[in-house]
Amino acid sequence: MATHFLGDTAVLLGRSLRHITRSVDTIITTTITPIAMMLLFVYVFGGAIDTGSVSYVNYMLPGILLITIASGIAYTALRLFLDMKGGIFERFQSMPIARSSVLWAHVLTSLVANVISLVVVVGVALLMGFRSGAGVSAWLAVAGILILFTLALTWIAVIPGLTAKSVDGAGAFSYPLIFLPFISSAFVPTDTMPGPVRAFADNQPVTSIVNTIRALFTRQPIGTDIWTALAWCAGILIVAYIFANISYRRRIS
Fold first, then answer.
1. Is 27 in contact with 76 (CB distance < 8 Å)?
2. CA-CA distance, 18 to 20, in Å (whole number)?
3. What pLDDT does residue 91 have?
4. Which of 101, 239, 247 has the alpha carbon at shortest distance from 163?
5. pLDDT over threshold 80, residue 29
6. Structurally, how many domains does the chain consist of?
7. Which domain holds residue 183?
8. Which residues cross the membrane (predicted)?
C-alpha cells in the first residue's frame, strides 16, 4: 500500500512539476513581490529603523522569507482550483491510484517551487549585503523551519483550493498571510509598537519564527522561541491537514 501511494504521488508530482517548468513566470511572480519589499525596506526605510549592531538587510530577511512562502502558496490553491474545475479529479477517481496522492503531489510541488523562490530571494539578499556567520547546522535548522512553515501554509492553501467558488476566491486567502509579518518583529522591534499591537505581535506565530531564524543567522542564543515556532508550525500543519482532507473527501464523495 505504501509503495502504491509513493509511486502514484511521484507520477502526479512529475505532472505538476512539468506544469511549473512550462510557466516559469509563476516562480518569477512569487519572488518579485518579496524582492521589491526587500529593496524598499532596506534602501528607503532601513536607515530610519534602529536595529542595533545588526544590518537592516540581515534583520529583515527572515520576514521576507516568510512573505515569499505566503506569496507562493497562493498558486497551490489556484492549481487545485483549476484541476477541480477542469474535471481532473474526476478522471483520477476512475483510475486505480491512491486518492491521497493527488493532494500530496500538489503539496510537494508547492514545496519545490517555494524552495526555488527562497533560494532566489536569499541570492538577491546576498547581493544587497546580507552576511551570516551561521554554520551548516544552523543553516539546516533554518531550512527545516522554513520547510515546516511551507508545509503548514500549503495545507491551509489546499482548503480554499478545494472549496472556493472562483479563481479570485482561491487565491485571496493568502493576503492576510502576506500581511501578518508586518505586525510582528519581522521589520521593526515589537517594543516600538503600541501596547495592544505589541501584545498581538509578540504572541502570533510569525514573531517566534522570525526571531528563531534571525538568532540562527546571527549565532545568538535562541531561547524558547524555537520551541514556540515549532509548536505553531506543527499545530497549524496538523489542523490544516485534517480540515483539508475533510474538504477533499466531501468534494470527491
1. no
2. 5
3. 64
4. 247
5. no
6. 1
7. 2-252
8. 27-49, 61-82, 103-130, 136-158, 170-188, 226-248
Return the C-alpha cell found at 232.
505553531
Instruction: Render pLDDT for 104-139 as a digit per residue (tens, 0 to 9).
Output: 888 888 898 899 899 999 999 999 999 988 889 999
pLDDT digit string, tens, across residues 175-203: 888 889 999 999 988 888 898 999 999 99
The three-state (H, E, C) secondary structure of the chain, written as one string: CHHHHHHHHHHHHHHHHHHHHHCCHHHHHHHHHHHHHHHHHHHHHHHHCCCCCCCHHHHHHHHHHHHHHHHHCHHHHHHHHHHHHCCHHHHHHCCCCCHHHHHHHHHHHHHHHHHHHHHHHHHHHHHCCCCCCCCHHHHHHHHHHHHHHHHHHHHHHHHHHHHCCCHHHHHHCHHHHHHHHHHCCCCCCHHHCCHHHHHHHHCCHHHHHHHHHHHHHHCCCCCCHHHHHHHHHHHHHHHHHHHHHHHHHHHHC
